[in-house]
Amino acid sequence: MKPVSYLLKEKIWIVPAMYSVAAILLSLATFYADLYLVERFIDRIPSIFLTKVAEGQTILGILTAAMLTMTTFTFSTVLVVLTMYTSQFSPRAPENFIQSATTRHVLGIFVGGFIFNMLSLLYMQEDVFDHEVLSTTAGILIVFFCIATFAYYIHFVASNVQVSTLTNKLTADAEQVIAQYLELYEQKHVSEENWRPWNPKETVGATRAGYIQFIGLSGLMELAEKNDGAIEVISKIGDYVYEGKPVLHLYSDQKMDLPFADYITIGDERTADQDLGYAIQKITEVAVRATSPGRQDPNTAKDILVRLGHLLGEMSHLKTDGLVLTDERGNNRLLYRFESYSDILYKTFYQISYHSKKDVSVHSSMTDALIVTAALAPALRYDTIWKIQLYLLEAINDGELKTLDRDFLQKKVDELAEITGHESVLLQKPD
After folding, report:
1. Which of 323, 213, 306, 338 minimizes the C-alpha distance to 268?
2. Largest pairwise CA distance in the chain
3. 354 touches 395 (CB < 8 A)
4. Sign of CA dihedral 398, 403, 409, 414
């Protein structure tokens, strides 16, 4: 089952709902405080904090209308930003804005403030209170807090409509996924060559059609150890599965009770919480959009490519073949196969390469990205990195490169060849 933090991000209504419940409880608390406590301690409460019921009704009515207006404006701002993200960056970028903690909490604060003032206005009746009340002051303080939140939210929106901020967030998401897998690798593991399940095999199929969003690898390993068996994960995170498609192979002498939904989540869309390929794809799409004929923003693409190179360098330390997790006694418990490193590199660059055939600045930036990757990668990845460089050069018609462009790109290709230990290729001179 997905951790609570993942569910809070996906179900954006949960946080506003929690604020709404808190606002209802707070309004009841202030009502009973006015009803039973204010009259008893009225001599100790400064008169500036107390209002008559009629005045309180007027003030709370104004505050409720103001909070409704502010909440409506905030929702409209969210819709405008989502539209801009879709048109300017990527159709998959809006989820990063709408699922951010700031957006969820701001919406919750405004909804909660509106509910508190509306309920306080409902409770404010002259036949209930024969003395002055504190609820009006509480409503004013909440509105002040909402105004401060609104000012911060304007700054937040202004910052997030910048492509650099989005790129930083997408990069941070990818780094977080890489860190999760590196933490998993710190557990005792061996290569797939040592995978030797000897028990009878049982196949577990998908319970519905959709994308695999989450797999509890640690939980599956613990389950296999508990049943003295082994589990082989057939479908990867991010794969689309249909109902009944094999997802797991269970190896055990006894019947292994595996509640599918407790360990594997299938949804209608891919998510970047565990899906490293999807996290990289979202960054790549922003670069592709920057190189499209309608925008022609190669500098943005260059900035993104350098960040991609750093991410690919970090990913090079992951085992992208079959990963076998073992228990403390050295028994094989879990096999999970990641996407190969060559496929990851290819899927990162092939669309950008296609959309920027005649832009030498973007191609040189892709070589810069590979240089960063090679500098961070272990030697066993050098052949794969150089192979991708040769593939990228195939997209360029060397004979059409101008002299300075050819020399500029040649220096970068030579640098990458030196790092990876390969013989450089000579770009053609113009006729």
Report:
1. 213
2. 98
3. yes
4. positive
pTM of the model: 0.77
| Paired residues of 191 in beta bridges | 323
Hey, how many other C-beta atoms are within 10 angstroms of the C-beta on 220? 24
Give 347's Cβ-side CA count (13 Å radius).
14
What is residue 70's three-state secondary structure? helix
Q: Is the dihedral of CA 160, 162, 165, 169 positive or negative?
A: positive
DSSP 87: I
Between strands 210-215 and 240-241, the pairing is antiparallel
Q: pLDDT tens track of the chain, all 431 residues?
A: 555 666 666 678 888 999 999 999 999 999 988 888 877 877 788 888 888 888 889 999 999 998 888 888 888 888 888 888 887 787 777 777 877 888 889 989 999 999 999 999 988 888 887 788 888 999 999 999 999 999 999 888 888 888 888 888 888 888 888 888 877 776 656 566 667 776 778 888 998 999 998 888 888 888 888 888 888 898 888 899 999 999 998 888 888 888 888 888 888 888 888 888 888 888 998 888 888 776 777 888 888 999 999 999 998 887 766 677 777 777 788 888 888 889 889 999 988 888 877 788 888 899 999 999 999 999 989 999 999 999 998 877 655 678 888 888 899 999 999 999 999 888 766 55
Residues 229 and 176 sit within 8 Å (Cβ to Cβ): no
Alpha-carbon span 254 to 273, nearest angstrom: 33
